[in-house]
Design a protein that fits this description.
By secondary structure, the protein is mostly helical. It has two domains: about 30 residues, no CATH class; about 120 residues, no CATH class. Helix content is about 50%, strand content about 5%. The chain contains seven helices and two strands, in the order H-H-H-H-E-E-H-H-H. It has a two-stranded antiparallel sheet with strand order 1-2. The longest helix is centred in the middle third of the chain and has 23 residues. The protein starts with 9 loop residues before the first helix and ends in a 7-residue tail after the last helix.
């Protein structure tokens, strides 16, 4: 596992002029950066009504072009985590928001298991939010084009097609 901050995407090196500092191999990779444009599609058939509502809300609120078909599985996992967190929160609220509860012996107190589950789900959601571009910091690193607009950088990076 790499320590430190994530490497800067290659196209940003082109934009800010630092590409000249890259090695020959890294510069060659710049033109081969994978692009995905397939639309996301609908929610999985196995989703519950609650999960489907979360899916539709996220798709509607996401900026145009942010989510594509390659993000499908990650978005499915995120929706499941949101729905599970919502259920855990409802149960936690039903207990009167008690952080400490009686232990199995009836005498000691322990941290409410729902509190631990909420913390675990929230941490997983936080990580997925960053990957999906759902946080203010993540959105500041992403640029999308409205549907139908052409990307000048993509035209620059795409080699011209040679027809015989």
């Amino acid at each position: 596992m790499q320590a430190g901050r994530k490497p800067k995407p290659g196209v940003l090196h082109l934009v800010d002029g630092s590409a000249r500092h890259l090695g020959a191999e890294a510069r060659a990779r710049l033109g081969r950066t994978p692009q995905t444009c397939a639309p996301m599609g609908g929610p999985p058939a196995r989703f519950t009504d609650e999960q489907r509502a979360i899916w539709n809300r996220l798709i509607e609120e996401a900026p145009d072009g942010l989510l594509t078909a390659i993000d499908f599985d990650l978005l499915v996992n995120y929706v499941i985590a949101v729905a599970a967190r919502d259920k855990a929160l409802a149960l936690f609220n039903e207990t009167g928001c008690q952080v400490l509860v009686r232990g199995g012996d009836g005498k000691s107190t322990v941290t409410n298991p729902l509190m631990r589950e909420l913390r675990r789900l929230t941490e997983g959601m936080r990580m997925m939010q960053g990957e999906l571009g759902f946080t203010p910091a993540a959105r500041s690193r992403v640029a999308t084009l409205p549907e139908g607009e052409d990307d000048e950088l993509k035209r620059f990076l795409t080699p011209p097609s040679h027809t015989p």
